[in-house]
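Q: Got a minute? One more chain.
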Amino acid sequence: MDPLSLLKSTPGFEDLSPASYETLAGACRVKTCVPGEPIIRFGEKGTLFGVVAEGEVEAVRTDPDGTEDRQAVLGRGEYFGEMSLMTGEPTTADVVAYSPAKVLLLPHASLHEVLVKEPRLATSLASTISKRLVNREKDRRERDAVAEARRAEPDPYGLKQFPLRKGGRVLTVNCGSSSLKYRLFDSADPAGGLAGSVERIGLEGMEHVSQGASGPTTVPLAGAGHGAAFEAMMEAIEASVPLDGIDVVGHRVVHGGEKHGQAVVVDDGVMRSLKACEKFAPLHMPANLAGIEEARRRMPRTPQVAVFDTGFHRTIPKPAYLYGLPYAWYEEAGVRRYGFHGMSHKYIAYKTATVLRRPLNELKLITCHLGNGASLAAIDHGRCVDTSMGMTPLEGLIMGTRTGDVDPGALLFLMKAYDLPPGKMESMLNRESGLKGLSGVSSDMREVLEEAKRGNDRALTAVQAFCYRVKKYIGAFWAALGGLDALVFTGGIGEKSPEIRARVCQGLSKIGVVLDEEKNRTPPGRREVPDISAEWTPLPVLVLATDEERMIAREAARALEREGYTQLMRARDREIPVGVSAHHVHLSPAHVEALFGKGHTLTFKSPLSQPGQFACEERVNLVGPKGRVERLRVLGPERPASQVEIARTEEFKLGIDAPIRLSGDLEGTPGLVLEGPKGRVTLDRGVICALRHIHMTPEDALGFGLKDRDVVQVRVAGERGLIFDEVVVRVKPSFQLEFHLDTDEANAGELSSGVQARLFRVESRR
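A: Always. Here it is, folded:
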């Protein structure tokens, strides 16, 4: 039977439009299997939806004791892979041929494209998905299988395989003021590819060095400019692959300002907004943008994507990114902390979660990118909450030639004392300071260490100052995070200098940082595992190699994917009700009795918009270190753990700082005291400000082309026409479609329940 006939005979796939059948038939492939042959393995990233064409296949799960547990046997016309379509989770069982079989495999991306246009098919698949989601809530073994599959997934964050629908090639370009670096990623040749650089652009000694299948080549280009550098790059690429075989070009862009966090597909409007960011990085941004313009001219049909050094740090909260300057300077001139090295910190965060086999959204990490440029990042549940660099890369750690933190008053004093104009001072701070200025030897840590060993006191002082500053930031970020799950070193110094790592970690045992000296001294190529911590300490200290080019490629491919899903989402032009969520409390059964009396159960007052949830007659008082909030409504039904959701204004009244979290994500959150008519309860955790979120049923999500935990932007109608970003999609069969805002945000936007919203853009996907 041909693929199209099989699709037409599969339940739910009957009577689709000719265009939908054409899309599915063009994307699918038929796999012929012998008995026992694997089709999808346990822990494999869920990207395929399968239909059994002939024979039978079985879903088999292997228990920890090695026993095979057959979950189901599927016959002709039955399908598998529908849960990953909704959840983005890896496969929770091996799918293998039970008899000689043929299966039809459809990429999720193509199926989503059809589901948006075929509501009957979305309803059919949503029904199956809903039953399985309900069963998962009841069956702990199913939930455990999901957690185990996540731990088994070899590439959970897509660092190796990029979501491309054509040839699987990504070109990365890093165009600087005096250099051009590039790398071609090819899914057909993961270990190979092409890489090259042109250094000293416009100067004597300018040359193009490329590394391909035939080995390295060097071509002198003395005195030429950026145009010649780009021409040399294009010639090298065309000698390797046809230009129209490249799916997307990812460009490193130093600064995205406040507008750009996620990588973005470039158009004329984006170029205008990027030009407005030139003022923040006048040495780098013009060259970055020139590289994009040149690539758009030479490859007009290939999408160009801007990937931002500052992007990962967009989640830093306002109290952490504001300077103590007049607020108008932030509002009018954008003076604030932005942070840099974002691609390295993000890559290392993903890599750490992969190594630890734990979801990133459960981890608290400090990542140390130590090289000629150096910075630290504090990462809480996948979100960067602080970083050492500021409005420019000058702030923070002592670096190769940059000062790091310095009293602004000292700079004013020096400018007056030595009659230094701003340009001269800028040059001194960026090029003559740091290790170079302190040691008087070099900006290269290896040379400074050698001089220190020879007894050079200034070199030793420079090393000590460098390590002290790193240690101080680790301590500060540990305090900001409220704990730590892993400390990670990367960058040229972080990866290759055991002496620096040892000096940095000395004296940090109180926070769990203790090195195994033998592991620390072992060279990276001979180290069996990246963890160099002592075996008896529970806190891993990892040494991981960063790969910023790969991160640019990943982000570029993901941006292209998001753009496609944004178009699908907008095609379903459907209004979404806005619900304003007032502060409230969820209680566990034990806390209900403690607050309202033994044997007491919650009293129904009125239904809420979400089925099964209700407002209760009961109210409680909140007592914090600073003050009180009276008579908060309790919402039912009871929950396994008590939770308090408040707005920013209540944080101030209570004197606590609550993190922005999804409901139920309570690890590391602050607590307070609850007062009821019959008693008091002290919560050691459980107070959050809720992330913006949209409730959807599986059918809603499939109709929009979305998955559970996708992050979107939402446009809200009204006089101000507001756009809200970082809105998390929550999918559950019992939900009713609704966009939830907290009271503070609704009041600021002059919104009330009953106004309508529309989905605007996909920001990230699982």
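A: The domain at 356-539 is CATH 3.30.420.40 (Nucleotidyltransferase; domain 5).
Q: Perfect, thanks.
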